Amino acid sequence: MTYLWIKSFHLLFVIAWMATVFYLPRILVNVAEAGNEPAVRARLLLMGRRLYKFGHNMFGIAFLFGLVLWQGWRVFPATLPNVAAGMHWIDAKLGLVALLLAYFVIVGRMLKHGEKGGALPSPVALRWLNELPVLLLLGVIFLVLAKPF
């Protein structure tokens, strides 16, 4: 039962982080489209900054629960199973998660660049950029469910 609780909390915080990953570029699209409306731009940048901080917190908690799921059997062998014993799907999954984290950091840097008055990519480019994490998340989900190797 402990394993299922840990897994449930891991999924909860992953979902919260992914909501941030999906929504932060949409805020950047709105910032790029705000043009010369300083009040709108300032409000959107504030929302983006708060969302980015929230996303960092959610990732950190999801990471800790994921680490317990992955390596917890070493500390609590009677309670937690070895979910990846000799399998390499977990390596591919962690690689995709690392790419998602890199994406999140890059979008955060775009936000910080926009806060300093720097130019953002076009709204169309930002919309395309927003689609990338969907593909990466699909890969993560497939690997977790299918465990193909």
Give the topology.
Elements: H1 2-34, H2 38-75, H3 89-115, H4 123-129, H5 132-146
If you had to describe this structure to a student in words, what would you say it looks like?
This protein is mainly α. It is 81% helix and 0% strand. The chain has five helices and no strands.
Defining traits:
single chain, about 150 residues, mainly alpha, 5 helices, about 80% helix, elongated
Structural class: mainly alpha
Q: How many E-type strands? A: 0
- Spatial shape: elongated
Q: β content, as a range?
A: under 5%
Regions with little confidence, pLDDT below 50 for 5+ residues: none
What integer value in Å does the Rg equal? Answer: 18 Å
What is the straight-line distance between the termini?
26 Å
SSE arrangement, N to C: HHHHH
| Helicity range | over 70%
Number of helices: 5
**Biggest sheet, open or closed, and with what strands and sense?**
none
Mean pLDDT: 96
Q: What is the gist of this entry?
A:
This protein is an all-alpha fold and 149 residues long. It has helices at 2-34, 38-75, 89-115, 123-129, 132-146. The mean pLDDT is 96.
